Amino acid sequence: MTAVGRLPAGGYDAVWASPGRVNLIGEHTDYNDGFVLPFALPHSTVVAATRRDRPEWTVWSETTGETVRFGPDERVGGWAAYVAGIVWVLREAGHDVPGADLKVTSDVPLGAGLSSSAAIECAVMAALVDLAGADLPMPLRPRLAQRAENEYVGAPTGIMDQAAATLCRAGHALFLDCRSLATEHVPFDLAAERLAMLVVDSKAPHAHVSGEYAARRRSCEEAAKILGVAALRDVDADGLPDALAELGDEVLRKRVRHVVTEDQRVLDTVAALRAGDVRAVGPLMTASHESMRDDYEITVPQVDTAVRVALEHGAYGARMTGGGFGGCVLALVDEEHRDTVAAAVREAFAADGFTPPDTFVVTPGEGTRDVGGRAARRPGRRWS
């Protein structure tokens, strides 16, 4: 049963869905004003909203079974902070957000690096914007959702997750310039090439609010300041040797080398997809993983094992996706070999004593979308 089908029975004024995402390539480049290439999962978080007559919000989560209630001036923690943060940021931006009862269901795996947090943020935003009848175009929403996560929740994430959850298009990867927010929907048709994207959920959890993610971001900001650039995006591959020579600290050198080479790998991947050469993406994925492992130092044994075993069993490329320290691995494989690769990874995890992984195949899905509700059917309704 889909997340929509699991909603409690009832008539809702607005029902919106936002997907989780995987990042094909471009890790830890977003907060460096660089380039990323995510695509939306078929897995989504669904928010069903019913208007209330007073400025108060209640939110029920199918996942936790909890109901949280808060007013406009109350600070909320835990999972409900992602909901309250959106109410806060919309009000801060001058939108008259009505009170609402919200029901949340989701089939986006939690703690797997698939951006379940952005999925709930963007679905809540869409539902509340719908209830308010506000004119808030989709391209403007990711920045607000990112602000909610940064300033209200306290997670120093870049804008990629919210942009992917909002803007992705089925059958495409989203090429995003994180400085200008310019986007391009790049065709990514795996089935036409008889390929599959296997996801391995390592079950090694990560947490962006933890110190390691923030430490990587601070290192990049420090390096940019030393190099006299606004962000590491401004150091290109040709200028990398000079930049590394200017940095006295080996850790900073490694962090800069990852970000600069990762930006270039995103550009090379986009070029390969534009040319229709999907298999050429494989070696770039593997190089990305090696850079995350050796220079950015954000992988763990479970994801390294999944990458190694996938490559040993014929994957064209494999890499960790997400912020790191756990989460999921992507492996680009022939469609006919996907089960073989998945079985080999499970066997390797068992041999190493790791928690059994989940494996599944994904295709590029759709971003934030209206999936029902009375508001969606009102005559003459204008959509952002």
Automatic annotation (TrEMBL):
The record marks 21 as: Transition state stabilizer. Residues 14-50 form the Galactokinase N-terminal domain. Pfam families: GalKase_gal_bdg, GHMP_kinases_C, GHMP_kinases_N. Residues 375-384 have a biased composition (Basic residues). The keyword DNA repair does not apply. ATP binds at residues 61, 111-117. Substrate binds at residues 27-30, 213. Belongs to the GHMP kinase family. GalK subfamily. Catalyzes the transfer of the gamma-phosphate of ATP to D-galactose to form alpha-D-galactose-1-phosphate (Gal-1-P). This is Galactokinase.
